[in-house]
Each structure stands twice: as structure tokens, then as C-alpha cells.
Amino acid sequence: MIIAKLKAYWPLGLTLIFYLLLGGFYLLHHDWNFSAFSVIGPTTGFAQHFSDDNLYIIDEDPRGYDGRFFYFLSRAPFDLGTATDLLASPIWRYQRIFYPFLIYLLSLGGVAWLVNLWLPFVNLIAITLGTYFFIKLLQFQKIKNYFSLFFSLSPALIFGFLYNLGEPLAFALVVLAVYNFIKDRLGLAVWFLILAGLTKETTLFVSFGFIIYFLVNRPNHYLKKILLFSLPALIFTIWIVILVLIFGYASFLNPAGGNLVAPFLGMWLKAKVFLTQHWFYQLSDALFYLSFLLGAWYFLSETFKRLDFFNLIGLLYTVFAFTFSIHLLLFPKEYARHFFGFHLFLLLSYLATRRRLALAALLIYLSTSAFYLFEFLILLDFFR
């Protein structure tokens, strides 16, 4: 029995060992200070505001990265005055409230050292649970368990873990939603999608995909199911309205970094700057876009053969990518994070069709993890 369990869940053990080693190596190079995961730079005001928290300041990255926003929201979510000063477009930070508020509760109301511990540990738990239920999903469909490594070792989850971001928790919730949907537990699936939407807004495409699927196929009680799967978008909208009332409409119209621009402008500008980048980034970019284009072609071709909810969600992410902005298409951390849903549902669709086109796209995408880890080791002066 024990041996059978080990054989069934060995990818889960491998995943846990990988992330423990990765996290340990990262901490070793940052004086074992867990706040280093939040990547707080010296020039954004966070270090000064939380000067008593014994934060590890990343001098190599003066502005830091988005983990600093989650640190603030986990530490002092009700300090709205400071949030207006420190957070770039506070509405766009507070909309992803579930991950930091969960940390706030676990850290007994934002106790600094507990916040620093729980931010990476919740992501580690999320990756572990997501992988476990992905394996359960594979077992239900009688598919080999090693396919779960496409999920657990994806660059999006690696980045999310190393930078205290919301993607590991958001997509663990998505996996739980898909698992419960396939097991015909629709109520639970919707609850997980609600929490996912309040963790990462792009997961709402999953709910929209289910709604379109019900509209097209009209299963029994389809109107009831449409209303049920509209709840994640409805609750997210109500939350946005509350945030607009708190912070003002101007904050909502001015998203951080100019992430909303004219459709297709991001792709054009990305092509323009491609040749001016370092060869390392050119190669990682080329791999990502090749993976994306192959996956997009797969989704389009499958649409004319069969219209299941995996394909529909993949198509929604495809449209999203083509209309996304330059700011989130420039760097590996950005597109690895924001387009993980595309590759996750490419994987789920491939498991049903076994088309080589999808497998090629997935293998190319997974290979980019090696490039990102190589960059990570360079940043830590591993090769010095």
C-alpha cells in the first residue's frame, strides 16, 4: 500500500524537494532572512515605512518587485492612507486581496516576522496542494502522473514562489475548481473560482469559459449553471466597486505601469524592442513566443473539431495575450506569470487530445524554466 502510494505521488515529493532546495539556496544567499522573498528595493518607501521589521533590502533591484505590495497588504491592509502613498494604483493591488489577507490572518494580524514566514510558506503549501490535486485529476482520467510536473515546475510557479506573488495560490485554486467541476461538485468549484478571482483577476477567464461552454452546449439546468458560474465575476465586480468608493475612480483608470493599452500594441512594441535585448532574453523570448504561437494554433484548430471548456478557456487567454500591453510582455517574469493560465489549459486540453502540437508547445514552455533558473543563479553570483 505504501509503495503504491509512493509510486502514485512521486511527482509531489519531487516538487516539494525542488522548492525546499530552491528556497533554502535563496535564503542562504540572503542571510536566512525570509523577507528577501518579497524583493523590497531601497527607493520605493517600503524600507523606510517598515524600518523596524528587519527587512532584507535588495540593493541590486532599487524598485523591488510586486512581492513588496503583498508584504504591505499582509502587514497593514487597513492602513488606507499609507496605501495611497506607497502602492502604485492601490485599487489594482487591493483587488488581489485573498492571498495577503490570508497571510494577515495567519500572522495574527500582520505580525512582521510571521508575515515574512507565511508569505513563502503559503505559496509552498499552495504549490503542493495544487500538484496533489492535479495528480488526483490525472488519476481520475487514468493519465500518467508525471504530467503533473508540467504544472508544478512551471516558470510561473517558480517566480511566484521566489517573489512572494499570488500565482501559486491562484492557480492551485483553479486546479481545485477544475477537479471539483469534473467530479460534478459545481458549488465547490465556484467557491474556489471566487477565491481565485480575488487572488489573480485573470483567473476569471476560467469562469467565463465555463459560462460560454454552458451557453453553447446547453446541458441540463444550463441557466442555473450560468448564474452559478457568474458569481466569481459578480463578487469581483462588487469588490472593485468598494475599492473605487474607497480610493476614487481615478485610481481605477490609472493602472500600475500602463497595463491597459490599445489592443495589439503590446505585441508590436515587443517585436520592435526584441533585437535590442541581450541574447539571453532574446532566446527566452523566442522560446516563449514560439510556445504561445503553437499553443494558439492548437486552440484555434481544436475549436473546429470539438468545443470543450478547456479549449474555450484557452481561446480566451489567447485573445487576452494578443490584446495585452507592452509593460507585461517585456520581461520573462511578467509573461511567465500572466500567461500561466494559457499554458495550464493547454496542458489540460492536451491530456484529452494527445496532439503533438500541444505537447511541443508545452515542452518549449517548460524548457524556459531552465533559462529562468539560470538567470536566478547569475543574480545570486553562483558562477563567480
Strand content: under 5%
Low-pLDDT runs of 5+ residues are 256-261
Average pLDDT, all residues? 86
Q: Ends: how far apart?
A: 47 Å
* H/I helix tally: 21
Outline type: globular
List how many beta strands DSSP finds. Answer: 0
* Main beta sheet: none
Radius of gyration: 20 Å
Summing up helix and strand content along with how strands pair, one would put the structural category as mainly alpha
What percent of the residues sit in helical stretches (DSSP H or I)?
A: over 70%
Order of helices and strands: HHHHHHHHHHHHHHHHHHHHH
Structural features:
mainly alpha, 384 residues, globular
SSE layout and pairing:
Elements: H1 2-28, H2 46-49, H3 67-75, H4 80-86, H5 90-94, H6 98-106, H7 112-140, H8 148-152, H9 155-162, H10 167-182, H11 186-197, H12 204-217, H13 222-229, H14 231-247, H15 249-253, H16 265-274, H17 279-303, H18 309-322, H19 332-338, H20 340-353, H21 356-379
Overview of the molecule:
It is a single chain. With 384 residues, the chain is mainly alpha-helical. The chain has helices at residues 2-28, 46-49, 67-75, 80-86, 90-94, 98-106, 112-140, 148-152, 155-162, 167-182, 186-197, 204-217, 222-229, 231-247, 249-253, 265-274, 279-303, 309-322, 332-338, 340-353, 356-379. Helix 6 (98-106) packs across helix 7, helix 10 packs antiparallel against helix 11 and helix 20 (340-353) runs antiparallel to helix 21 (356-379). The longest helix has 29 residues, at 112-140. It is globular, with a radius of gyration of 20 Å. The termini are far apart. The model is unreliable at 256-261 (pLDDT under 50).
